[in-house]
Every structure is written in C-alpha cells, then in structure tokens.
Fold this sequence. Notes:
Shape of chain B: globular
Mean pLDDT of chain A: 88
Helix content of chain A: 25-40%
Largest sheet of chain A: 6 strands, mixed
Strand order of the largest sheet of chain A: 5-6-7-3-8-9
Helix content of chain B: over 70%
Shape of chain A: elongated
Number of strands of chain B: 2
Structural class of chain A: alpha/beta
Radius of gyration of chain A: 22 Å
Order of helices and strands of chain A: EEEHEHEHHHEHEHEEHEHEEHEHH
Distance between the termini of chain B: 34 Å
Mean pLDDT of chain B: 84
Strand order of the largest sheet of chain B: 1-2
Oligomer: heterotrimer
Radius of gyration of chain B: 23 Å
Order of helices and strands of chain B: HHEHHHEHHH
Number of helices of chain B: 8
Strand content of chain A: 25-35%
Low-confidence stretches of chain B: 1-21
Low-confidence stretches of chain A: 293-298, 300-310
Number of helices of chain A: 12
Structural class of chain B: mainly alpha
Largest sheet of chain B: 2 strands, parallel
Strand content of chain B: under 5%
Largest interface: A-B, 49 and 42 residues
Amino acid sequence: MTAVIEVENLTKRYRSTTAVDDVSFRLEENTIYGFLGGNGAGKTTTMSLLTAQNAPTSGSIRVFGERPYENHRVLSRMCFVRESQRYPEDFTPRHSFDAARMFFPRWDEDFAQRLIDDFHVPVHTAIKKLSRGQLSAVGVIIGLAARAEITFFDEPYLGLDAVARSLFYERLLEDYTHSPRTIVLSSHLIDEISDLVERVLLIDDGRLLIDESTDDLRGRAVTLTGNADQVDRFAEGRTLLHRQAMGSVASATVYGALTDAEQAEATAVGLERSSVPLQQLVVHLTKKTRSGHSHSHALAHPTPSSEVHS
Amino acid sequence: MTTATHLTRGPLGSIERTPGATMATGTRILHVVRLQFINRYTFLWVPLLITGAAVLISLAIYAMVGSDDPMYGGAGQAPLWYYLAMGVQAMSLTFPFSQAMSITRREFFLGTALAAAVSSTALAGFYVLLGIVEQATDGYGLNGYISLLPWVWSSGWAGAAALVFMLTMFFFFAGFWAATLYRRSGTMAVTLALVGLAVVLLAVVFGITRMEAWPRVLETFGTMGPFGAAGILACAALVAAAGSWLTLRRAMH
Amino acid sequence: MFDPGRPLFLQIAESIEESIVDGSLAEESRAPSTNELAAFHRINPATAAKGVTALVDRGILYKKRGIGMFVATGARQTLLDERTKGFADAYVAPLLAEARRLGLGPEDVVRLITEHTGHPTDHSAHLSPQEAR
C-alpha cells in the first residue's frame, strides 16, 4: 500500500485549548476512512491541518510526500469542503460549481449535473437562502464531482433527510468503485457509515484512540452477561469498557476478542456472549477516556490477544 | 498504482484528465481573478450602479437648487465605501471559499489584488467618461459637476484616473487588511489597530498645529496635484496590501 | 441485515456460502463480483473483496482470468460437510446448556426430539439433519 498522507506527532494548540494532541497516522491510497468522534473532538481541525487550511503548532504532515502548506501541487489534488463552509456574498450553487470546475483538475461536469438533479439543488438561488440540507448538498456535490485524489467530507449529512443521506452513500460508493481514491468521511453517525468505511480513525479530546480496520473492530469487544461473580471473574485483567449490574446478574463489556477456549469456557459457566456494535464500542471507548482512565490511550495500537491475557 | 498515470472513464465514457497534470500557478491566479468575477454583480455592476445612482441624485439636487455658478458635489466618493466593504468580504467570505477550492493563500492574494485592480480600472474609466460628458454638456446643462472637479482634473484625465484608481485600491486593501486582522486575531486586534491609527493621525495633526505648519501643508497638497496625491495613496495602498499579505499568510480558520 | 458486531467480510462470505448450500448459486456458475456485492449490500468494495478472497482461499470459489469468480465443483459438499461438523457446537451444545438450566437430562432432550420429529404437521420433519439448518 502507498501512503498518500503521513502524519507524525501532529499538535494544534489554541490559546487555552489543545484541539489536536500529538496525533500520528497514515492514510493509504484508494481507501475509504471513517473519521469518528463527537463534536469538538478535533475532527475538523485535523482535516483543516491536513489540507493546509490551518497550520500546526508542531508535528509533521506529508501529503504525497510533500509539505502541503502553500503547496499548490499537493493542494490541487485534495478537496475539503467544511460543514460550516462559507461562500462569497450572493453566490449561487451554480457559481460555486463553476468555480470548482476551474480549480479541480478532475472535475466531472456530467456527474455534477446528475447529482444536482438527484439532490434537487436550486442552482440559481442565493446560497444564503438555502436550507441546511441544500447547503450540505452543495458541499457534497463539490466533494464528489471534484474527484480529488484525497477528498474529505465533514459531517456531510447535516440537514439531509434519510433518503438524501442514503443517496449520498450510494453515489459515493458507485463513484468510488469506478474511480477509486482516498475518501475521509467525518461523522458521528457511525452506524450509517460503518459498512462503507474500510478503516476507522477515532479521535476524542484531540487524541487518536483507534486506528484500525473496521472489520477488526467489529469483533473487538464482547459483552458477557450472567452471574455477577462469573462475569467479574472473566472481566478480571481485561480492559473493562462498561459494567452494569442488577441484583446478582451483571453484564460487562470488555475490549479484546475471546479465544475459542475462552468462548467455550464462558458458555460452560452459563455466560451469554453478545457482540458489540461499532457504534456502541465507540461510545464506550469515548466515555472511558472522558472519565479519565489513563490506560485507554494504549488502545490506539492494540494487540488484543497478548495484551488482554496478561 | 501510480496516480499520475491513472486514467479512469467517467460515467459517460469520457476520459478524465490525469491528476498528475497540476495547473501552473499563473493559470490558477488567473482563475482566482475569474472566481472574483463569476458573480459579476459584486466586482463590476454594483460599484458602477452606486456611482450611477449617486450621479442621478446629485443631478436632481443640482436641478432643484439651480445656480449660475458651477456646482460641485462629493457624490463621487460614494463607491469608495463599497470598495471598503468589498475588501472585507473578499477576506471574510471569498477567502474561506478559496480554501475549499484548494487554492494557496498566495494564489488567492495575487488573484484578488489583480481582480481589485481590474475593478478599479473600470471605475476610473467610468469617472473619466463622466468627466468628458460633463465637459461636453457644461455640467449636464445644469452647470453641476461630479467628476470634473477643478483640482482633480488639474493634470488632465490621466491625473483624475490615477487618483480614482489609487483611491479605490487603497479603500479595498484597507477593508481587506482589517478583515484579515479580524480573522487572525479577533475584534480586539482590529479595535487596537484603529485606535492606534487614530492616535497616529491625531499626533500628526497636533504636531502640525503645534509647529503652525498648516499653511505649508495645505500649500504642499495644492501644488502636488492629483498625480502627487495618487502617489501618496499608492504608498498607502501598498502598505495596506503588504500588511494584508503578511497577516493573511498565517490567517487560519 | 448484517450483525454490526461481527466482521462484515465473514458475513459476506457466509451469504455466498448460503446461496451455494441452498442451490441458488450452482457449481461452475459465476459468483457475484466484488463490485456487484458492494453495490448490492452497500458496503465497501475492499470488504466485499476480502469476503470473496476468503472463499477462494478455502477452495469454494476460483478465479477465471478476465471473467470473474466461479463456484468450484464440489463446493456445496465441502460446505455441507463443514456445517455437519459444526452442527454439534452450534446447535447441540446450546440445546443441552438450556436443557440443564431447565433441569432436563439428555434422555429428556432425546425424548423431546423424538416427539417433535414424530409430529405430523411439522414441515421440517422430513428433512435429514444435513439439510436442516
């Protein structure tokens, strides 16, 4: 695999807050990433650093092997339309698409036209008069039709109804299939995008908690329910993400897959195993860091079988 | 797979341009100029419309007042304030959009300066045209003048054009710089800068008064003519432009 | 549709296996391509590819250059054998565990099964254990 973006120890501090805190990762070519995290976790700041819309406090960014800041060779191969994107005064969607056609070398006008029809965007209405959903659609159309080699979508679904959202996912997948590129989908609607994304980056409070293949993550956590003593015996020595009890019955969500032997053992002592959906895993992991457990930081590059059993 | 040689077929079978072929910076700067003119209202029609409206209103006033002596009006300064606002908007709205278009700050700055120059040239041309009309019609037959002010035209049409051009450029960059400062450092910075500017101006006025130098100052302005004034404005515009660029270089979201 | 807590590529592979076992995907017929799977299930093509590759590795599917993936001869029998082997773990063990909780012994379970299969209105009665899932 070829990395299109390499980030090392990236930090962005504002006067009183640290928006991005010592983050390192790489993005491969022709891959769809899910960039997850709550509001204010640092998603938008990270993306604006990668696209040189913002400058880092420290750390290094390489895009196609070059520094992106003020570098037109690299910038013209990326596209990042913000969720809160601002447009020139009195601009209409048509003006924006005309501009995008000038600046993105791979812009596909026919595709743009099809998307305009799909999303029913009123192209001659002033952008400031558009609804939230129509505004999102303008950003989505620019992002898709630009066909940039690295495209960032920043919470692209805001204000879009279920039909429009699923249309976006469908068009994205279709277009990606016949012109593969690197796509980063920033979102907190994890369930909606989890089938689309090959890898997940989870950021919380400026720190990267997870950088893993989506499929690996799906089997990563397990919830054990049953007799409280048995549950606790199993949870002992593992990273406990969540525990709740009712009388003598407890349920514990632990990080790390169980081995076949452990699965058999759990069944034998009457514990019920259930898988943890990605959305829930992310919620647990995020909550955990918020409550201040320091060792959760080590989850970013986990080796579950060795770590969990020790 | 090397992306530079990667060819894909679009939905209609058209071969897309290769990504490896990035546009030259010059081309992209010209595209920024075009970007500023995509909505021709902003950079072209509105300033001309404001000037036109100011002229009509002045004419109405001249007609009502009526006088045997030539009447001079200050309506000509009306579009200047629009250029100040345009400078502000170029920064506060068009700059963020230019970032979404993956344009570098340098390309955006140079393209926008070029666009402002084109627009200023158009306005200067309009003023000269207006002056010629006023000359030919003896002030629209009313003996009322808006463009053809004696001092402004004392070095002919070129002096008037230079003065109008530099005035609009200065106003544009003043607005642009203020908005850039605001974007980078917030309301406090802009307020401080304005207060600082006021203090400097007051100090100059105080100094001139103290040294009882007003007659000499006025004489200097009188003798340097429109070209001289345009020169001073050019310096001021240049300072504002340089300040804008230095601030913009590190302006962030 | 899919279980959000299990690897998706496994579930994709299982859905193809299912079609082979129930006969809707015959041996030596063309299997759905990665892109078809991605579009149909609305999933990442790379994940679909991983599911297909897993089946190729196990000899269930094979690749014909330039044409696509095909179901191998004998694939259905292989899958049926695997499932028979897994039947005890997947169905008998949980059955006995539940029986134990209810206080039923193995002989009670056998009796129940016999009674159940003997019931004339039950539509699955005529199926051999291999075909029942």
